[in-house]
Design a protein that fits this description.
This protein is of the alpha+beta class and 629 residues long. The chain is 37% helix and 18% strand.
């Protein structure tokens, strides 16, 4: 509910209405906490600042996990999607990743509707001027409009707004997003409390007019049909699906862009913050990959009822006239009308070694940080942190045990563990390669991994757990049947021949046949006599799980064994205030990193960048001797 005057006390206050703030405020209020969301503009809640898309490689895994835990992003993406793709399907299932293109305005409106109608959640249009702390414990917040509000916990989700500065060519202006003011006061308040801060950069491309594009010169990119929903709550997508379009830069484009390098804030040193390595600006791509003759440009309409097109792949802070000239040198864009130039934005962040795995800060009890304030990039990474911070803020105010997703349990766990242990001097982006156990952490089984935890937290309904139990039973019955049932050569050989597989000479287990490269679960369903099993396998959510579990059985068992070893190291707890200086044989860098991050276990210590295997061995031996004494 939108309010003009807040109460004097809230269990949880969330600052910032971006993707992290949406998840944090919804989770805390749904877990029974009286919650306040402070946003500069209620109309900007859930806004897609950059690309109007959700998911992508590894990011789609995060959205699936969010949904399994009771988050909202997957549901909003399904409700407002205009195109859906499952990426990387030519590769193994560990890297399949869902992605949706969304109607930008519709997405934001839908997020606002859900937030404003949530019980126990107030929304205040204001910004935070100061954080009130007493004896290392959070007591409340002071706003620019003069409100002093006490709280049990607070979650800061400031995005790119902390002292935000936007750059286009030689022009700079204050702001955290196009048309929106920066947030001032939070950085200074945190620094006065002893936090260290840094500066990062991100960027966005120009927007052009759809009616000015010659689409006949582009490659049409159609949606998957039928599309697969993000949310386990949705069985199908009913929205009208529209295409996106692909074109390319050329050598001429690159020469035009190079003319603006001497006025680029990135090359002239006016931008001090480090940008995302894996989502570079177009000028950075032209400079770093000068041998390439072209780069992909995806033209992505921003919705059903708008002519605005997002020029994906052309993120830039070059002068406006250079952007315009470069755009018009691309096939299909010769007569393009520029609606808004691209720009870069610099903002303050707080290196995440200052956090616990709950996302509570180590310096101030009761204060949580989530999203780009922690040095990440992307809506999905922000939303994942927002959900975990909101959950743990609610649990702490209720005096309950914290909730932590281990890196062996989900990509959300990998994300947070990486941030804390490796910290970051550039915006962090999630990739499947960051997960050691990625065959187990697939996007298709997030419900099986995490939904029961969401139910225990009160964020998943009993009806969804009933559906999950039914699914698990169907998977188990199907695997048992296939592992114990044989089939005669006369019945299966026609299929094997058609699929370019060797025919069999005697009866063979169905499970063994399913492990063949070209044989799918639906193929097996077509030849079994058991009607119940046939129906089970033909249910997409079941058949896919059965097929993956059986085809990759050996690899899955091996990764489960690795997780057991991982768990043992996690159980080896290090005292919170342990003095690492007493171990003379630790490396100098190892001592410094261990002292700064203060790992809770030997397992965490082993994942800290700069802590060697030798350091871990020495630390383990010393702690064991200490324990024996």
């Amino acid at each position: 509910m939108l309010i003009s005057s807040p109460k004097t006390y809230y269990d949880v206050i969330v600052v910032g209405g971006g993707h992290a703030g949406v998840e944090a405020s919804l989770s805390a209020s749904r877990m029974g906490c009286n919650t306040l969301l402070i946003s500069l503009k209620s109309g900007a809640i859930g806004r897609m600042s950059c690309n109007p898309a959700i998911g992508g490689t590894a990011k789609g895994h995060l959205v699936r996990e969010l949904d399994a835990l009771g988050g909202e992003m997957g549901k909003i993406a399904d409700a407002t999607g205009i195109q859906f793709k499952m990426l990387n399907t030519s590769k193994g299932p560990a890297v399949w990743s869902p992605r949706s293109q969304n109607d930008r305005e519709w997405y934001s409106n839908e997020a606002q509707r859900r937030v404003l109608n949530q019980t126990r959640l107030d929304v205040l249009e204001d910004s935070v001027a100061d954080i009130i702390v007493d004896g290392g414990v959070l007591r409340g917040l002071r706003t620019f409009l003069g409100h002093e509000i006490s709280c049990g916990m607070a979650v800061l989700c400031a995005g790119t707004f902390l002292n935000g500065l936007m750059h286009t060519g030689e022009k700079s202006r204050s702001g955290g997003r196009f048309g929106e003011a920066p947030a001032r006061g939070v950085t200074e308040s945190l620094c006065s409390l002893g936090f260290s801060t840094g500066r990062l950069k991100t960027g966005t491309p120009p927007r052009i007019d759809l009616n000015s594009i010659d689409l006949s010169k582009t490659e049409i990119q159609n949606s998957d049909d039928p599309p697969i929903p993000f949310s386990y709550h949705n069985e199908k997508i009913t929205n009208r699906l529209i295409p996106m379009y692909l074109t390319y830069t050329n050598v001429g484009t690159h020469k035009i862009l190079e003319k603006g390098f001497d006025r680029s804030p990135m090359f002239t040193g006016r931008i001090k913050g480090v940008g995302p390595r894996y989502c570079p600006s177009i000028e950075d791509k032209v400079f770093r990959f000068s041998e390439r003759e072209r780069h992909q440009i995806f033209l992505e309409p921003e919705g059903y009822d708008t002519n605005v097109v997002y020029v994906n792949g052309f993120s830039t802070s070059l002068p406006e006239e250079i952007q315009f000239e470069g755009i018009r040198s691309i096939a299909g864009l010769e007569n393009a009308k520029l609606i808004r130039p691209g720009y870069a934005v610099e903002y303050d962040f707080f290196p995440p070694h200052q956090l616990r795995h709950t996302l509570e800060t180590k310096i101030v009890s009761g204060l949580f940080l989530a999203g780009q304030i922690n040095g990440t990039s992307g809506y999905e990474e922000a939303a994942g942190q927002g959900l975990i911070a909101g959950i743990n803020a609610a649990l702490k105010v209720q005096n309950k045990k914290p909730f932590i997703v281990q890196r062996s349990e989900g990509y959300i766990g990998v994300l947070i563990d990486d941030l804390i242990n490796k910290s970051t001097d550039e915006p962090y982006r999630m990739f499947t390669s960051r997960a050691e156990y990625r065959l187990l952490l697939r996007q298709d089984n997030a419900d099986r991994r995490l939904m029961r935890a969401g139910f225990d937290l009160g964020l998943i309904s009993e009806g969804m757990i009933d559906r999950l139990n039914d699914k698990e039973n169907s998977i188990s019955e199907s695997i048992q049947y296939l592992s114990s049932t044989t089939i005669a050569p006369t019945k299966i050989n026609p299929l094997l021949v058609m699929k370019n597989e060797s025919p069999i000479l005697e009866n063979e287990l169905l499970s063994k046949l399913l492990r063949r490269t070209n044989i799918t679960a639906s193929d097996i369903a077509g030849v079994v006599d058991n009607d119940k099993i046939k129906l089970n396998i033909l249910r997409n959510s079941v058949g896919q799980q059965v097929e993956i579990d059986m085809k990759y059985d050996g690899y899955i068992r091996r990764q489960n064994e690795q997780i057991l070893r991982f768990a043992k190291l996690e159980e080896y707890i290090i005292p919170e205030h342990f003095d690492y200086s007493v171990i003379s044989s630790l490396s100098t860098e190892g001592k410094e990193k261990l002292h700064r991050i203060r790992p809770h276990s030997i397992g965490q210590a082993s994942r800290i960048s700069g802590v060697t295997n030798s350091d871990v061995s020495v630390l383990s031996v010393f702690l064991k001797q200490l324990e024996n004494k």
